[in-house]
Amino acid sequence: GSSGSEDEAGPSTAAAAAAAQKREERLRKFRELHMKRNEARKLNHQEVVEEDKRLKLPANWEAKKARLEWELKVEEKKKECAARGEDYERVKLLEISAEDAERWERKKKRKNPDLGFSDYAAAQLRQYQRLTRQIKPDLEQYEKLKAQYGEALYPTSDSLLHGSHVPSKEGVDRMVADLEKQIEKREKYSRRRPYNDDADIDYINERNAKFNKKAERFYGKYTAEIKQNLERGTAV
């Protein structure tokens, strides 16, 4: 009887141990899933906070940040060169490749491109900017005038300016040279050809007219006979 009870207890104990092991495995997986869920929730919250910060920043924040980082690097490089007793501009030029230098030169030329005539205000502004870039202040002459006229050099609303200023010969020569350059440049402009009412109309719009003129210039001598035959009605 005792051996029978021991045999019955053996399988039940093994089943209970197996059940306990499965329960422990499930609890472990549950704890892992719970930790992963908390971690994902935390990461999502951080991402939402970061996105909210990015949305509140100015539109050009990234460009400003890159600019500030570049300026900090330049300052550090200048300090390093000063500590070694080297010229920063010379070191910077030595580090620039030929391709970068060529690209910067092209970019510099495109910095103020001539976009043609848009309106008279824009043309006047470009003319003013061109003239002011050519002006090189004479500091020595300025100091002489300042010593000569004192406070009268800076006019106010009560100052009488008419007849009080005589331009220098160099200034007059510079103005004359600039006017002569403007006249020479203006003479190079091609004027718009006047419209000829008697000319044959072989176009449907102005763009088509330009295309026909270009085609006539290149292929007119080859198609002249065909065109004459078509006009006479004798074309084959």
From TrEMBL:
<feature type="region of interest" description="Disordered">
    <location>
        <begin position="1"/>
        <end position="23"/>
    </location>
</feature>
<comment type="similarity">
    <text>Belongs to the SYF2 family.</text>
</comment>
<protein>
    <recommendedName>
        <fullName>Pre-mRNA-splicing factor SYF2</fullName>
    </recommendedName>
</protein>
<dbReference type="InterPro" id="IPR013260">
    <property type="entry name" value="mRNA_splic_SYF2"/>
</dbReference>
<dbReference type="GO" id="GO:0071013">
    <property type="term" value="C:catalytic step 2 spliceosome"/>
</dbReference>
<keyword id="KW-0507">mRNA processing</keyword>
<dbReference type="Pfam" id="PF08231">
    <property type="entry name" value="SYF2"/>
</dbReference>
<comment type="function">
    <text>Involved in pre-mRNA splicing as component of the spliceosome.</text>
</comment>
<dbReference type="GO" id="GO:0000974">
    <property type="term" value="C:Prp19 complex"/>
</dbReference>
<keyword id="KW-0508">mRNA splicing</keyword>
<dbReference type="GO" id="GO:0000398">
    <property type="term" value="P:mRNA splicing, via spliceosome"/>
</dbReference>
<keyword id="KW-0747">Spliceosome</keyword>
<dbReference type="GO" id="GO:0071014">
    <property type="term" value="C:post-mRNA release spliceosomal complex"/>
</dbReference>
<keyword id="KW-0539">Nucleus</keyword>
<comment type="subunit">
    <text>May be part of a spliceosome complex.</text>
</comment>
